[in-house]
């Protein structure tokens, strides 16, 4: 039982589960925003143009007992288009602009080498300065001029 709870705690503590939960909550809030945009602004605009609150009642006809509602399809397509446009202009475009500015800022400043690389370079330099027995023997057996 304890390992199950530990596993669940590890799962929730991982970033993926928390990010997914935040995305769902933001998605629900954004859905409310887009719905109110459609009902409060786009619907009355369509009503003033076509004479109804939405397109679902328009372009409706019956053939051989089947009722076809092209207005309903057009209304759903319009709401999808409005939702996609709102997502793009309110979320995607500003985040892309912010990411571009961050990348530009990172490219301007040279990145400092990591600490472990600096330590390794210092060790390399110290080893290069050290005289080894082989170098000492070579120096001692060299002909003198």
Topology:
Layout: H1 2-13, H2 15-50, E1 60-63, E2 66-69, H3 70-108, H4 115-129, H5 133-140
Antiparallel strand pairs: 1-2
Helix pairs in contact: 2-3
Keywords:
145 residues, mainly alpha, two-stranded antiparallel sheet, elongated, 5 helices, Non-ribosomal Peptide Synthetase Peptidyl Carrier Protein, Chain A, single chain
Polypeptide structure, described:
There is one protein chain. The termini are far apart. With 145 residues, the protein is mainly α. Strands 1-2 form a two-stranded antiparallel ribbon. It has five helices and two strands; from the N terminus they run ααββααα. It is 76% helix and 6% strand. The protein has one domain: Orthogonal Bundle (Non-ribosomal Peptide Synthetase Peptidyl Carrier Protein, Chain A), CATH 1.10.1200. Helix 2 crosses helix 3.
What's the level 1 CATH class? Mainly Alpha
Radius of gyration: 34 Å
Ranges with pLDDT <50 over ≥5 residues?
Answer: none
State the strand order across the main sheet.
1-2
Largest sheet: 2 strands, antiparallel
Task: Determine the number of helices (DSSP H or I, runs of at least 4 residues).
Answer: 5
Do you know the CATH architecture? Orthogonal Bundle
**CATH topology, anyone?**
Non-ribosomal Peptide Synthetase Peptidyl Carrier Protein, Chain A
Please tell me what the overall shape is: elongated
| Count of individual beta strands | 2
Strand content: 5-15%
Subunit structure: Homopentamer.
Family: Belongs to the MscL family.
Membrane topology: Multi-pass membrane protein
Subcellular location: Cell membrane; Membrane
């Amino acid at each position: 039982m304890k390992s199950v709870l530990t596993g669940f705690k590890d799962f929730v503590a991982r970033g993926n589960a928390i990010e997914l939960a935040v995305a769902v909550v933001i998605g629900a809030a954004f859905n409310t925003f887009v719905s109110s945009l459609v009902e409060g602004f786009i619907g009355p605009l369509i009503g003033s143009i076509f004479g109804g609150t939405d397109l679902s009642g328009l372009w409706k006809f019956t053939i051989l007992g089947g009722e076809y509602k092209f207005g309903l399809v057009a209304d759903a397509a319009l709401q999808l288009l409005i939702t996609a446009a709102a997502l793009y202009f309110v979320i995607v475009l500003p985040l892309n602009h912010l990411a571009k500015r961050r990348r530009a800022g990172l490219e301007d400043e040279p990145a400092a080498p990591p600490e472990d690389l600096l330590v390794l370079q210092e060790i390399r330099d110290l080893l290069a300065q050290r005289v080894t027995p082989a170098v000492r023997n070579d120096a001692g057996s060299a002909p003198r001029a």
